[in-house]
Amino acid sequence: MSLFNVFDISGSALRAQTIRLNTTAGNMANTDSISSSTGSTYRARQPVFASQLDAAGEAMGGVEVLGIVESQAPLRREYRPEHPLADQDGYVNLPNVNPVEEMADMISASRSYQSNVEVFNTSKQMLMRTLSLGD
Q: Which part of the chain is the Flagellar basal-body/hook protein C-terminal domain (predicted)?
C-alpha cells in the first residue's frame, strides 16, 4: 500500500462524513415540522456506507456512500385540535426524528471528520519530511 493511498482513503472518509453531517442537519432542521397526513410527513434519513471494492471484489480501503434511506420507525402523533393541520380527530403528524440520537450522530460524525483531517495532515507531514531527507 502506497502512502499516497492514505489520501484517497482519508478523502473518501471525509466525503462520507460530510454527507452524514448534512443528513443529520436536515433531520434536526425537520424535527418539529408538522403535517396533516402520514404520507407527507418528514421521515428521518440516514446514509448507508460500504467499503470500496476493487474489480476483484477485494476491499481496497476507503468508504463509499451507497445511498440515503428513510427511517421506518413510526411517526409521532400529537393531539393538537386547535392546529390548522390537525386531522378530523385533532391529531397532527410529527417526524420520527429523535433529537438526542441525531445530536449523538452529529458529534460522532464531526469527530470522525476531525480524525480524518488529522490523518490527512500527518500523512502530508510525513511525505514532506521524506522529501527533505536528501537535504
A: 88-133
User: Which amino acid is located at 36 in the chain?
Assistant: S
CB 102 within 8 A of CB 27: yes
Name the residue ranges covered by the structural domains of the chain: 3-134
Q: From residue 97, how far is each of 54, 68, 75, 101, 126 by CA, in Å?
A: 36, 15, 8, 8, 43
Q: What does pTM read for this prediction?
A: 0.85
**Length of the chain as a residue count:** 135
Tens digit of pLDDT for each residue in 71-110?
999 999 999 999 999 989 999 999 999 999 999 999 999 9
DSSP per residue, 17-44: HHHHHHHHHHHHHTTT--BSSSTTS---
DSSP state of 54: -
Using DSSP, state whether 74 is helix, strand or coil: coil
φ and ψ at 31, to 5 degrees? -55, -40
The 3-state DSSP class for residue 49 equals strand
Q: C-alpha cell of 47? A: 446514509
